[in-house]
Design goal:
single chain, alpha+beta, Immunoglobulin-like, C8orf32 fold, Jelly Rolls, eight-stranded mixed β-sheet, 35 strands, disordered C terminus
Length: 647
C-alpha cells in the first residue's frame, strides 16, 4: 500500500510539476519513491537524496552553476533546520536566481514556494554598513514540511569574469545529515587548464567517493554529528579545490592589482597618521600607536574576505566612515604606516585551522586579511580587528599558512608559527585566611595573557557598573554558599598595552565544613570563567578531533593560612603526568613555620588540536588531575585541657 501511495504521488507530480528543470542524469521521481526514512537513519533529522552542482566556465572566465538539491525531512528538527535556505552573494558581480522550489508532502501534495517567500535582503551582520550594500542574502522559505516531506530546490548562480579572467573555487562534500548522493561537475573550455585537488578533511570519510574527468561524486555518506569542542564542520569535511591559475605568483599579481591602488600615503590619511605619531621617533612606537588607533576607532565589520570581492575601499573613505571589514581596516593601517615610512604588506590568512593546498593557487583558501611587517627573520603579523586583546596578540591564523603580497605584484607563502603554551597564560591565585569555625576571607587575584586576556576584556570591558557588580557577586557565590563580595578591581581593560589583572576580596562564612572534631576543606574551582580553560574532555570517547582553541598554560595556586587550633590530617598527594599533547601536575606542601598550605595545580596544553586517537590519553590525564581527592584537605581540631589548680 505504501508503494502504491508513493507511485500515485509521483504521477500527481508529473501532472503538476516540470521535473528535472536543471537536473542532469537524475530521475527525481525515482529518488523520492525509493527514499530512505527514519528507520534507515534513526539519528538523522533529514537525508539529502541528491545534491548536484553543475559548473560551466566560459571562455572569458565567466561562471555559471546550477544548484539542485533534494532533501527529505525525517523529524521536526529537520523541518526547522532545512525549511529556510539562504545564500550570500555579491550583487555587483554575482547573481543567485531562484529557478524552482517545491515541497512534496507525505500525502503526495505538491506545494510550490510562493513568490513572497523568496527575498533578497541585507545580511543582519551588515546592518548600518552601507558601503557593503552590494552584499545580499537570498532567503528561500519553503512551505511547511512535515515528517517524510521532500523539498526540491533549484538555483542558478552566475558570476562575471574576474578582471584577469581566472576562475577558482572550493566546494564542500558531506554535511550534518546523511547524503545519499552528491556530485559536482565542472565543465571548462578545452584551452583552459584547470588544476583540481580533492582533500579528505579531518573526518575518516566513510562514503564511496569517485573522481573522473571533471566529475566528482560521493554516495552513502553518513551524517557527521558534531562532538563538543571539535572543529567547524567546514574543516572536517572533504573539499574540492580548483583553479585556473598556474602559480601563486599569478594570484599575487591579481591581488596586488586589486589592493594597492587603494593605499593612500598622502592627504587626510597622512595628516591623521602624523597627528598620532608627531612626538614619536621610533618606528616600533609609531607602529604601536597607529595600530591602536585603527583597532580601537575603526569598527570591525564581520565580512569574510572574498564575499564582497578583494578590492578594498580607498583608505581615506575608511578613515571617514570609521568602520570596515578586514580589507578596509588593513588598507587604512598600511596606508598610515607607509605615510610614516614604515614598510607593511597585506597578508591573507584563514580564521580556522585547516588543510592548506599549496598546489592549487586560489585566494578562496583565505577568509581574512591582516598586516605583515618585514623583520630580519621574515615577518611579524598584526591583526587590526583585535580591539579586545593585548597589542600584537594574534589569535587567528596560528599554525596556518599566510600569503604575503608585495606591491610589486609578487607574493610569498609564509608559515605562521603555532602558539607556545606561555603565549596564552593564566596565573590564578587564592590567599585564604581560614578561621577555626570554617569561615574564611579569600583574596582572589589573576594575571592574564594572550587568549585569557582577550576573554577577560570581552567579558568585562563593556559592562556597566551594575553588570560588573553582578558578575563579581556571582563569582563570590562560586567559592562557597553564602559568600559575599567585599570589594573588587581590575586593570584598565581599554588599555591594550597592559595585561589584564583582576583582584577581589570575598567573605566566605562556609568556606570549610566543620564535622565534630574534623574540618573538611575543598579548594574550589577558580570563579572567573575567562581565566580558566573552556575545554573539558567530558565524552568517554571521540571520533572527531578535540579542539583546544590554543596551546595554553594555567597555573592555579592557593595559599591557605591555618589557625593554630587546627592540625593537618590529610593533604592531596602529588601528581605529575607528562603526555604528548598535555602535561598535568599537582603539588601540595605544608609549612609549619608559616602555618600555610601551598596547593598548586598546573595544566599545560601543548597543541591546538588533539587527534581523536590521542583523546583517551588526554582525558585520562585531565580526569586524574581533576579528581575530587586532589582538592580535598582535612583538618583535626586540637583539644586543649587545663592543668589542675594547685593549693
Amino acid at each position: 500500500m505504501k508503494r502504491l501511495t508513493i507511485i500515485l504521488a509521483a504521477l500527481a507530480l508529473v501532472a503538476t510539476v516540470a521535473w528535472g528543470d536543471q537536473w542532469i542524469d537524475t530521475d527525481v521521481e525515482k529518488l523520492i519513491e525509493d527514499a530512505p526514512g527514519l528507520e534507515e537513519h534513526p539519528d538523522a533529522s533529514a537525508v539529502f537524496l541528491k545534491i548536484q552542482k553543475l559548473v560551466e566556465i566560459g571562455e572569458d572566465g565567466s561562471y555559471e552553476a546550477k544548484w539542485n538539491k533534494l532533501t527529505k525531512v525525517l523529524t521536526l528538527m529537520g523541518r526547522e533546520e532545512y525549511s529556510n535556505d539562504s545564500y550570500i552573494y555579491n550583487s555587483d558581480s554575482e547573481s543567485v536566481e531562484f529557478v524552482k522550489g517545491v515541497t512534496v508532502r507525505r500525502t503526495g501534495r505538491v506545494v510550490e514556494v510562493e513568490e513572497d517567500a523568496i527575498n533578497d535582503v541585507t545580511p543582519a551582520f551588515l546592518e548600518g554598513a552601507s558601503i557593503y550594500a552590494n552584499v545580499l542574502q537570498k532567503v528561500i522559505s519553503f512551505p511547511v514540511a512535515g515528517r517524510d516531506a521532500t523539498m526540491e530546490l533549484q538555483l542558478l548562480e552566475t558570476r562575471d569574469p574576474a578582471p584577469d579572467g581566472h576562475v577558482t573555487g572550493v566546494e564542500h562534500f558531506a554535511g550534518a545529515d546523511p547524503i545519499a548522493h552528491q556530485e559536482i561537475r565542472i565543465d571548462a573550455p578545452d584551452n583552459m587548464e584547470l588544476t583540481t585537488k580533492l582533500v579528505p578533511g579531518w573526518v575518516g570519510f566513510e562514503g564511496d567517493i569517485r573522481e573522473r574527468n571533471g566529475h566528482w561524486e560521493v554516495r552513502d555518506v553518513p551524517g557527521v554529528t558534531l562532538e563538543e569542542h571539535t572543529l567547524a564542520r567546514t574543516e572536517l569535511y572533504p573539499k574540492l579545490y580548483y583553479s585556473t591559475y598556474e602559480s601563486w605568483g599569478d594570484v599575487a599579481a591579481f591581488f596586488a592589482g586589486q589592493f594597492y591602488p587603494h593605499v593612500e600615503t598622502d592627504g587626510p590619511v597622512a595628516d591623521h597618521a602624523a597627528g598620532i605619531v608627531r612626538e614619536l621617533t621610533d618606528d616600533e612606537d609609531k607602529t604601536r600607536e597607529l595600530f591602536l588607533d585603527v583597532a580601537t576607532n575603526v569598527r570591525y565589520i564581520r565580512l569574510a574576505l572574498g564575499i564582497a570581492g578583494y578590492e578594498p575601499n580607498d583608505a581615506s573613505a575608511v578613515l571617514e566612515n570609521l568602520y570596515g571589514d578586514s580589507r578596509d581596516q588593513v588598507v587604512l593601517f598600511i596606508s598610515m604606516l607607509r605615510s610614516q615610512g614604515i614598510d607593511a604588506y597585506p597578508a591573507l590568512i584563514r580564521n580556522l585551522r585547516s588543510t592548506f593546498v599549496e598546489d592549487v593557487p586560489t585566494l578562496r583558501q583565505f577568509d581574512r586579511l591582516i598586516v605583515a611587517l618585514p623583520t630580519e627573520d621574515g615577518y611579524r603579523f598584526l591583526d587590526p580587528r583585535l580591539d579586545d586583546a593585548s597589542y600584537s596578540y594574534m589569535l587567528f591564523g596560528r599554525g596556518n599558512t599566510a600569503f604575503v603580497v608585495l606591491d610589486d605584484g609578487t607574493g610569498e607563502l609564509v608559515r605562521i608559527p603555532d602558539f607556545e603554551p606561555d603565549d596564552n597564560r593564566a596565573s590564578e591565585f587564592f590567599s585564604v585566611q581560614l578561621s577555626d569555625d570554617g569561615s574564611a576571607q579569600v583574596r582572589v587575584t589573576c594575571q592574564l595573557h594572550g587568549y585569557y586576556d582577550m576573554k577577560a576584556r570581552r567579558a568585562l570591558k563593556d559592562a556597566t557598573p551594575a553588570e560588573e557588580e553582578k558578575f563579581f557577586d556571582q563569582a563570590a557565590g562560586r567559592l562557597s554558599q553564602g559568600a559575599l563580595s567585599a570589594q573588587f578591581s581590575h586593570s584598565d581593560l581599554s588599555n591594550l598595552m597592559e595585561a589584564v589583572a583582576v583582584r577581589q576580596t570575598v567573605e566566605a562564612p562556609d568556606f570549610a565544613v566543620v564535622q565534630g572534631d574534623m574540618m573538611i576543606l575543598r579548594v574550589p574551582e577558580y570563579p572567573y570563567a575567562f581565566a580558566t580553560t573552556t575545554v573539558y574532555p567530558s565524552l568517554h570517547e571521540r571520533t572527531l578531533p578535540f579542539d583546544t582553541q590554543c596551546a595554553t598554560r594555567i597555573e592555579f595556586e592557593a595559599k591557605i593560612l591555618v589557625p593554630r587550633s587546627l592540625e593537618i590530617e590529610r593533604l592531596p598527594e602529588p601528581l605529575s603526568i607528562q603526555g604528548e599533547h598535555a602535561d598535568f601536575e599537582l603539588t601540595c606542601d605544608w609549612s609549619p613555620e608559616r602555618r600555610a598550605i601551598y596547593w598548586h595545580r598546573t595544566i599545560v596544553i601543548k597543541d591546538m588540536v588533539i587527534p581523536a586517537e590521542a583523546y583517551d590519553e588526554f582525558k585520562s590525564g585531565y580526569d586524574a588531575l581533576m579528581s575530587p581527592k586532589n582538592s580535598l584537605i582535612l583538618f583535626k581540631k586540637l583539644v586543649h585541657t587545663l592543668s589542675p589548680i594547685q593549693d
